[in-house]
Design brief:
With 693 residues, this protein is mainly beta. Helix content is 8%, strand content 34%. The protein is built from nine helices and 52 strands. A five-stranded antiparallel sheet has the order 1-2-3-4-5, with no helix packed on it.
């Protein structure tokens, strides 16, 4: 970071590309600006702002370090680095290890630990200032036998306003002790009075001792895995209990989300929780009126929720009526009707999910307060078109679409040699469609009529339809042009992915596939490892497909065959040596998706049939930092027709798709800035593409 003396301008390249100017407060507009680092409203007398875009910083946030090396709350690794939020998880943010609030903008994270240890910018910098730079604090230990270091924070301000003491569960006010790693937070009184040996009703045979453990453990009382550093353990029986599960529990539990009053019951025998249908031990709560026995955590289950996987409100049920039982619509295992689950509130809808499945990720559901009832305001709305003319059947024959300046006319005939693509989904045009009589613009009728705001089962917040010259889809990971649904964070869904339901029957498999966020391994379609958010899998066998393969067109045209090539999948029973691509003449994996013509006996790799970037519009404009120079007005060219100019990067002739500079490249030949498709397999171009987009 650098500052221009006398001009009150700073240059902070890791926070923003443009210079930031110190601006004095000027009315309501400046007061309502959000800081792009901490996410809070800027109410100070001055702010650093970008004159080119909507980017503002508190004066103190403009000077935060890019890295804190080392950070005193995470000494096991070299340090913490500043990252933009939501760069990895498409369906949720990260929780700060100290204040437990979601890091909405920037956050500090450990390179080795990834999402397991994050600090929001406020907690990261303030704790570093308090105990790192000033070096006034020393590690303290509970006693000589329990060498878990704690850091004493004399004044933590508001960083821990959402956290509670790990022993008494009361809010943290004033000085506190924080364990290395931020897992345990204690009042000074609780820290000094924390017993090193205790007895517990769940384990009467032996005493439990305070124990430090670096790895995860399983609490026998609440039946949860955890990574807290402190626990109580019976060394003889290897019986572990959370720190939070040791203090005496309330004899009665009654939450505002349910209608039962539960009484505490200690028992050694296992039981099946009537609220969630999973096994519990040692501690349970029972409703003597209704004869229900539930986990401690299930006494506070929300009565009504809104989940991403379903459009209507879901209601918790302790048992299902006849005809309501079915498969869980998340894991697709059977939901037992005698145990608790969540079901649709609408009469006649048999949508059911396991409690553990639907509540596993708190970014995929929200609690419906009783006073709000079943009202849901974020329904699909806002049409993408304005109807101008209709025929006698009431069908719109002329419309105005938000993504085009001219009126569009309804068409139902395609010329035999017409290979145009829809400017929404980028698939070949098919009837019925809308077209512009004044320019080359086409939209499928279904693409034109899509709502501008809608729900999608992949995430809870609504998504908004927007047009992009080019973008990388968050689901299929392809560069595409056309219309995108924009979601929370960095989520961008192309129309092909946005149209895929969470259960689908694929032509290449005999069973129904369902989307599983936990699915790991390789895709049976392309052989690539599944991305971090899962894939579509079959519960009957080990078959799975990622978004890129599940959205492949069922039929494509190619110059190698006069017929349309159909998407196919071999079972691999024949000799694999006979499988070869009729375009590139290389071996074709018998266990991967490919395109074939049964009439002509042709078979082609999917990448050979489609090309590397089949959904980019010819002429799409790009910007590229090439060898340290910013190049603008680069246009995607799907096919080089005027000779074979040489690539300025690899020096080989460009025969297929390229990026072409309108003004030429200072280092390049013929104005060509490198292959995109044909030589994508080379290591150099893989690196270029990664830095490129």
């Amino acid at each position: 970071m650098s500052m221009d003396k006398g001009k009150q301008i700073i240059h902070n390249d890791f926070l923003h590309d443009h210079p930031l100017v110190l601006v004095e407060a000027q009315g309501d507009e400046n007061e309502k600006a959000l800081c792009s680092v901490c996410g809070e409203v800027i109410i100070s007398a001055s702010t650093f702002s970008c004159v080119r875009c909507n980017f503002h910083l508190h004066p103190e946030c403009a000077q935060i370090p890019y890295a804190i090396i080392p950070h005193p709350l995470h000494p096991q690794h070299s340090g913490l680095w500043l990252y933009p939020s939501l760069t990895k998880l498409p369906y949720g943010g990260r929780a700060c290890a100290m204040c437990k609030e979601t890091c909405k903008f920037r956050f500090y994270s450990c390179f080795h630990c990834g999402d397991e240890f994050c600090l929001c910018t406020k907690c990261g910098v303030s704790s570093w200032n308090l105990i790192g730079r000033e070096n006034k604090s020393k590690y303290e230990f509970k006693d000589d036998g329990h060498q878990l270091p704690f850091i004493f924070l004399q004044n933590h301000k508001d960083e821990l306003k959402a956290a509670c003491c790990s022993w008494c569960l009361e809010s943290l006010m004033g000085p506190i002790y924080v364990s290395v790693g931020c897992k345990i937070k204690l009042h000074p009184k609780c820290f000094h009075n924390l017993p090193t040996e205790t007895a517990h009703p769940c384990h009467r045979l032996h005493p439990l001792f305070l124990h430090f453990r670096e790895n995860n453990f399983f609490c026998e009382v609440c039946q949860k895995n955890d990574s807290d550093n402190l626990l109580y353990r019976c060394l003889a029986c290897k019986f572990d209990i959370h720190l939070e599960c040791i203090p005496p529990r309330p004899l009665f539990e009654a939450k505002r989300h349910n209608e039962h009053q539960f009484s505490l019951l200690y028992k050694i025998d296992p039981f099946i929780c009537n609220a969630c249908g999973t096994i519990g031990r040692f501690v349970s709560y029972v409703c003597l009126t209704c004869h229900l026995e539930v986990h401690k955590s299930c006494t506070s289950l929300p009565r009504k929720i809104k989940a991403a996987r379903h459009d209507d409100v879901l209601v918790h049920k302790y048992f299902l009526e006849k005809g309501e039982a079915g498969d869980c619509q998340i894991c697709f295992e059977r939901v037992k009707k005698e145990y608790g689950c969540y079901g649709c509130s609408e009469e006649g809808c048999n949508f059911v999910v396991h409690v553990k499945c639907v509540l596993e990720d708190d970014s995929l559901y929200t609690i419906i307060d009783q006073e709000n009832g079943d009202r849901d305001d974020a329904t699909d709305s806002s049409s993408s078109i304005r109807v101008i003319k209709v025929n006698e059947l009431g069908e719109a024959t002329e419309v105005r679409h938000f993504n085009h300046e001219h009126d569009l006319v309804l068409g139902d005939k395609i010329k035999g040699d017409d290979d145009r693509a829809c400017d929404g989904c980028m698939l070949p045009i098919s009837t019925p469609f809308y077209y512009c009589s004044r320019c080359d613009f086409f939209l499928h009728k279904t693409c034109a009529e899509l709502p501008k705001i809608k729900h999608h089962w992949f995430q809870l917040p609504a998504i908004t339809l927007e047009a992009r010259n080019w973008e990388c889809c968050s689901l299929c990971d392809r560069l595409c042009s056309g219309l995108f649904y924009i979601g929370v964070g960095s989520n961008k869904f192309c129309l092909r992915c946005a149209a895929v339901p969470y259960t689908i029957k694929n032509e290449g498999h005999q069973h129904v596939l369902f989307f599983d966020r936990k699915c790991e391994g390789k895709c049976n379609g392309c052989g690539n490892y599944h991305r971090y958010f899962g894939a579509f899998r079959c519960k009957e066998c080990s078959f799975s497909l990622d978004f890129a393969c599940i959205t492949l067109p069922l039929e494509v045209g190619h110059k190698c065959d006069r017929h349309l090539l159909k998407l196919s999948y071999e079972d691999g029973e024949d000799d694999p040596e006979q499988f070869r691509c009729d375009v590139c003449e290389k071996k074709r994996d018998a266990y991967r998706l490919y395109y074939s013509c049964s009439t002509c006996d042709n078979s082609v790799h999917s990448r050979c049939a489609l090309g590397g970037y089949p959904f980019l519009k010819d002429g799409a404009a790009f910007n590229w930092n090439y060898h340290g120079q910013r190049h603008k007005d680069l246009n995607y060219v799907g096919k080089v027709v005027d000779g074979y100019p040489y690539c300025s990067e690899c020096g080989k002739p460009c025969q297929d798709e390229v990026l072409k500079s309108r003004y030429g490249c200072p280092r390049g030949n013929e104005g060509i800035l490198g292959h995109i498709i044909l030589l994508i397999a080379t290591d150099t171009l893989k690196v270029l593409e990664k830095d490129w987009f």
